[in-house]
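To illustrate the input format used throughout this study, we show a single complete record. The first block contains the structure-token representation of the backbone; no residue identities are included at this stage. The design step must infer an amino acid for every position from geometry alone.
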């Protein structure tokens, strides 16, 4: 019989993230991540705004000193988020995925504990999902936690580049930048899978970067180093994704469809492409295309084919507007052009979570 404490925790993560509902796989994962006291504290924390330990202690009717120490320990374990200004420390609950999952693998550790968590997360990801009842439509797509951000200078110079589509702008504005191991690829390698793409290419920016640095989940780097990471990732053919917010982004991950759960779902299971794509799509100048097939080889979404006339052809229903195909096009025949259905990301993380929760409520999944 499931402990009600973990059932409540599962319900919380289902409401604020990509939960699978109540399942044995989710309970096993949560019981491994949180002891019972940590679970109670996580349930008492706000998932929106960091709050001081005294406020949490009052809510739980517990000793503030004990709660402060416990919250700090949970932050070190990557179970909650912590921010600090001077001596003022504040904490909040974070999503299970994305959130806690990433923090468990960002250090790149190869230990029995890391392998156990990789197995538990993998079981959770592959747990059976309830199928729609006969005659019932599948739940509509909701606001994604992440979005593709186009590679610098791959958007056609003839069109406007939306400010929230420029990775360089966010990097240059960040007061703190860290780099960590790609958690998706590391988790897959712990499961004896993985791929040959580089690992040290995931960036964190601003307050989240300070958390990552202070808690040892990554190392601080300069803006110049961050730009080099982006160039190296583009050359390798990785797809840049960021948090789906516009005022500020917390991370830029350089992803592959073989390990990234979000992109893999879109590619292999017919997921909602427009929910994660940038506001651009690749377009081919047929007069310039020499039919070399380089773009076909580099496109991780398998959105490009060669016609019988050996001209590259884009399937915009599969294209996520990443620009990977543009980077190495020797004839400069491929560029990114604006989509007609421009989607502006939520302004802030709180707005993103609120919109996700509202969509789940409307669809009956929350």
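Output of the design step:
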């Amino acid at each position: 019989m499931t402990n009600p404490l973990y059932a409540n925790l599962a319900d919380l993560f289902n409401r604020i993230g990509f939960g699978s509902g109540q399942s044995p796989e989710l309970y096993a994962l949560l019981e491994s991540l949180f002891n019972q006291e940590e679970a109670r504290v996580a349930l008492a924390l706000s998932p929106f705004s960091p709050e001081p330990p005294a406020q949490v202690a009052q809510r739980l009717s517990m000793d503030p000193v004990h709660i402060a120490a416990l919250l700090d320990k949970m932050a070190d374990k990557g179970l909650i988020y912590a921010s600090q200004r001077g001596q003022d420390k504040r904490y909040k609950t974070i999503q299970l995925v994305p959130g806690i999952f990433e923090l468990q693998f960002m250090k790149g550790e190869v230990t029995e504990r890391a392998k156990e968590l990789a197995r538990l997360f993998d079981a959770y990801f592959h747990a059976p999902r309830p199928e729609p009842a006969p005659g019932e439509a599948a739940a509509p797509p909701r606001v994604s936690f992440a979005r593709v951000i186009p590679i610098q200078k791959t958007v056609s110079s003839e069109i406007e580049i939306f400010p929230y589509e420029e990775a360089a702008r966010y990097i240059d504005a960040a007061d703190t930048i860290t780099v960590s191991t790609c958690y998706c690829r590391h988790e897959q390698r712990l499961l004896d899978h993985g791929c040959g793409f580089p690992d040290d290419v995931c960036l964190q920016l601003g307050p989240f970067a300070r958390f990552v640095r202070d808690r040892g989940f990554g190392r601080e780097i300069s803006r110049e180093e961050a730009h080099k990471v982006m160039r190296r990732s583009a050359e390798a053919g990785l797809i840049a994704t960021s948090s789906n917010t516009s005022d500020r982004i917390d991370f830029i991950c350089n992803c592959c469809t073989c390990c990234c759960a979000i992109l893999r779902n879109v590619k292999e299971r017919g997921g909602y492409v427009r929910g994660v794509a940038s506001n651009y799509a690749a377009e081919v100048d047929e007069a310039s295309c020499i039919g070399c097939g380089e773009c076909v080889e580099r496109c991780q979404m398998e959105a490009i084919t060669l016609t019988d006339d050996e001209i590259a052809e884009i399937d915009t229903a599969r294209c996520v507007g990443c620009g990977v195909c543009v980077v190495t096009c020797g004839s400069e025949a491929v560029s990114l052009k604006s989509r007609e259905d421009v989607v502006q990301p939520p302004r802030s993380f709180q707005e993103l979570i609120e919109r996700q929760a509202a969509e789940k409520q409307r669809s009956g999944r929350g």
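Structural context for interpreting the output: The longest strand covers residues 80-85. DSSP finds 15 helices and twelve strands in the chain.
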